[in-house]
Specification:
The chain has four domains: 185 residues, no CATH class; 79 residues, Arc Repressor Mutant, subunit A (Orthogonal Bundle); 65 residues; 68 residues, Arc Repressor Mutant, subunit A (Orthogonal Bundle), CATH 1.10.10.60. It has a four-stranded mixed sheet with strand order 7-6-9-10. It has a two-stranded antiparallel sheet with strand order 1-8. The protein has 21 helices and twelve strands. By secondary structure, it is an alpha+beta fold.
Length: 474
Amino acid sequence: MGDMLKQGLELKQTQKLSPLQIQTIKLIELPTQELEQRIRKELEENPVLDEDVSKEREEDEEDAPREVSLSEYKEDDTIPSYKLRVNNYGKDERPQYNTFSVKESFSQSLMDQLGFRNLSEHQYKVAAFIIGSLDDDGYLRRDIESLVDDIAFRAGIETDGKEVLDMLKIIQEFDPPGVGARDLRECLLLQIRNMKKTPDVVNAMTILQDYFQEFTSKHFQKIMSRMNLSEEELKAAMAKILKLNPSPGGQIDDSYSDQAQQIVPDFVLTLDNGQLKLTMPRFSIPELRVNRKYADILMEAANSSEREKKEAAVFVKKKLDSAKWFVEAIKQRHNTLQSTMQAIIDYQHDYFMDGDETHLKPMVLKDIAEKTGFDISTISRVVNSKYIETHFGIYPLKYFFSEGLENQEGEEVSTRELKKALQDCIDAEDKRKPLTDDQLVAEMTRRGYKVARRTIAKYRDQLNIPKARLRKEL
């Protein structure tokens, strides 16, 4: 594994990254399908790169990889020797492979809709960055000014609060309704504004605009008296609100089911005689080699004084460098992904043996960074948008990461286990006398989990479980 990645791939303003590092960083983030597209694009744009289509790679005299020394090339920046062919991967064990259909990703759906808007290139980039900043539930939980700074720092795009807000307003018109909201109230209002203005809908809109605090606190008497509504009118308006979707990004509704996208797992894990075996299927990723014809042109022109040949040589040299970096970056991407996934499997060995969630240990990016020697930002890039097929299902890599706490015995338990225990406590409570957060602390302690009251409140919030008073049923 190259030292370059071990030193970390963290982008710093002061750090000058080499073309190879930049190329590798970009490739690491890509899932398998996008990598294939990226390689196809590079093959089209760089005539020096060829797809190696030979089925059997026998190293006979004519076709064997050979070193070509270009040191006699008369320019200050001489090209180091390079291999004419690079085997990026081992032999593909499962070339015929089923892809897995999942609903179209939320952000991809928004990007498709963005493509239909008549925007300048600058506006499109700003809007795309906003889409990339949305939470999984479809909210923008960032203030506009910090987003302006982030766009400038991370994407190198100068913008201002007005333009970001204008682009956000456009995104808020997209499907599913409510997307791009900055809080629950705005999310619900965005949805109800699209509805036919019946008296019930108008009342519902007024409640959300002017009496949202009273509505969430269930102070219904106050709303009825201030809006001069009967109980029936309030119930009818509330029924409209309760039909709205508080988490537009949480799942794309059934109307999206025809927009299925094929997911190709980047890793395959099998259990063979009690041993876990990790493979990285190549599928349709082309094998690359450098075109010999262009290497020969360069060799021929190396010592020539003819101007045209010199220019051709400079062009070819540039393309050769680019090809060499690209092939090397593909190799580094493969090695980085493999090392990271293997470290995750080693760390979560018990879980991967049987897929039992209770065996999933608390694990953060830092744990795997320390295990592999890579930077945390590198691990983050590997984990993003990648899937693994296991003998018990297909999972995004993000699934295996969580924070952790201790139980009564001082052993670490995963957040998932704690949330499940909390959900069990609430499912078992008497709904006429729901458990307060303090009572939940006591109940969790009784079950062997020591959790602070604020942690209970946080997990309850993440599980979309309202506080005790709002869980009360008649």
